[in-house]
Amino acid sequence: HPYMFPSHDTRSKADQLIQSSKLSDLSGAYDLGTFFLVKLANSTGHSTDLFKAGDRAYLTSILMDPADSTRNYFVNQAISLLKKASDSEPKNDTIRIRLAQTYMDGTENVMNGVQILLDIVAKDSNQAEALFTLGRFGIISGQFEKAINRLNKVVYLQPQSADAYSIVTGKQTAYRDWE
After folding, report:
1. How many whole angstroms separate alpha carbon 172 and alpha carbon 70?
2. What is the mean pLDDT of the chain?
3. Residue 154 half-sphere exposure toward CB, CA atoms < 13 A
4. How large is the average pLDDT for residues 81-85?
5. In the prediction, which pLDDT does 162 show?
6. Which of 75, 125, 143, 169 is a Cys-bridge partner for 106, taking CB atoms 3.0 to 4.6 Å apart?
7. Which residue in 52, 104, 81 sits closest to 118, CA to CA?
8. Is residue 91 exposed (0-12), middle (13-18) or buried (19+ Cβ within 10 Å)?
9. For residue 54, which of 69, 44, 66 has the smallest C-alpha distance?
């Protein structure tokens, strides 16, 4: 069959998966492109491939309707790939933050994600992306005071962060009105 990959030629298989992903993206089949990247990452096992595919699976999942059963496939793949990438690079906060976001945005195990972020912030209290994500979820969970404090710190650490600034100013006003 012309689409079967020779098992003895891993590089050729990887090249074909990359090409298939690019062609799928160009044709507008973003989820199929993600599927090929997931297959690539699982075949190579390289932390860079694992992170890129896990990140892409996460992004694909959040673009999908929550009722779409395919969404669960991408969430589960994202978690699996990001865990493997994190095991390869345990000090890489970018990977761990994306894993936390996947738990928080894609599963009912929100606290798994929160705990990952709290561990990151415990080691580096100025980790702006972890603080921003915790602040965003503090708003969702109704913990406005904690959320505002975390987002204020992000604004302090990264004054150019328009997202944190707009969220914190809007929520401070809403919180005052709510009280």
Report:
1. 38
2. 84
3. 25
4. 98
5. 60
6. 75
7. 104
8. exposed
9. 44
Tokens of 117: 């972020």
d(Cα 62, Cα 71) in Å, to the nearest integer? 8
Phi and psi at residue 109, to the nearest 5°? -90, 50
* Number of C-beta neighbours around residue 166 at 10 A: 12
CA distance 132 to 160: 13
- Please tell me the chain's helix, strand, coil percentages from 3-state DSSP, rounded to the nearest 5: 80, 0, 20
Residue 58 contacts residue 106 (beta carbons within 8 Å): yes
Q: pLDDT tens across 93-134, in order?
A: 999 999 999 999 999 999 999 999 999 999 999 999 999 999
> pLDDT tens digits for 128-173?
999 999 998 998 888 888 988 998 898 888 877 666 666 666 544 4
Residue type at position 144: F
* 27-56 pLDDT, tens digit each: 777 788 899 899 999 999 999 999 999 999
